[in-house]
Amino acid sequence: MLNVWSTHQFWVGFLRDIGISSENIVFSSDTSEEQGREYGKGRGTVDCCYPVKAMSGHYGELIFGLKKKVHIILSPMIYSLPSFLKGHVGETLACTRVMAGPENIRAGFMKESDVFADNGIKYASPFVNLADPDMVPKQMHDCLQDVLDLDFEETRRAVEAGYRDLRAFNQKMRNASREILTWCAREGKPCVLVLGRPYHMDPGIGHEIESDLQAHGYPIVWLQYLPIEDDLLGWIFGEEIQAKKIRSPLDISDVWTSSNSSNTNEILWGAKFATRFPWITCVLRLSSYECGMDQPTYTPTQKIVEATGTLFFKFGDLDSTKPAGGIRIRIETIVHYLAKYSDAIIQKKLALLPPDCPLLRENTDRNENKTKENKDKSNKDKMSRDKTNGDKTNKEEKVLATVAGRD
User: Fold this and answer.
1) How confident is the model at residue 406 (pLDDT cuts 50, 70, 90)?
2) Is the pTM of this model over 0.85?
């Protein structure tokens, strides 16, 4: 749910470190209308944010809908997020509605009686500043010491394990994104970037719009896992840094001065990356119904993306209903424009950047290394054959000498 989509590995790593096995860590299923109707009916509280309202179905499913008994529901209130932009923006805060969502939805299960206690479930909702690792051990210990029988040292070690697992997962995903972008650069093929909040990865929130597009053969990357290595960002943003237009490749102050919301900051930075990167020829902008955090960003992101001719398509006001027919028509339109304009967009953006793309250089280096490895292998095989032939010749000479001696 919500920001757990981008922080789940922290929570899994934390729980594993305190001795809870993987099979005893259960997530609710993807959001769906059926989930909401069956498990969240009558439990909703006043909130116009659809992703927050959808939490009722998730809570109800964990209480009533699983075959395996749940003993503890852990639903964190995440105040700030561990963003890759930290240090380059004002703050990395979570949306206030999303942060308060757990307590908001919990109220719907406490109206007549405590539904959690009635079903033998402990409810834990730690308030955490994930952007400030030094604060998290105390925050987690204060909330969970009685629920999970933890002392402070155990909690501190588990928090470190959680951050370690989260960093490893994020790097793995960034490496995968870089491989996709490298393939696009090598083959001259376009790809599509999704600008959305983490919970739009939930099929019931984002409606798998990007998957429908991917089925037409276009690789998809998400802004949350774009590669941020120095060589690539230096190639994309280096000239602007030298011209003192921005302070660093991760600076968004040239397009967004109110840089306090973590996900909003990343969406703006993703738009900057997309408009410069040649092989991202199309951007999908996803937004949920009545999202107050997203609304001020619609025009800026569109202007940034379209500044270099990159295609921009917005799917706004997404809610519980998936308009399959309308989405299918829009996907067909996007595919048409991608096929028609991608080559020209790639060439236009390449002309704006230095010639030495590190992704293409990687491919050249890889080919050179492969050629060298093949050559080395060939030389080793030849040396082995020569040695074998030499040994055979020596053996034959000894045999002949022995025979000659007998004669």
Assistant:
1) very low
2) yes
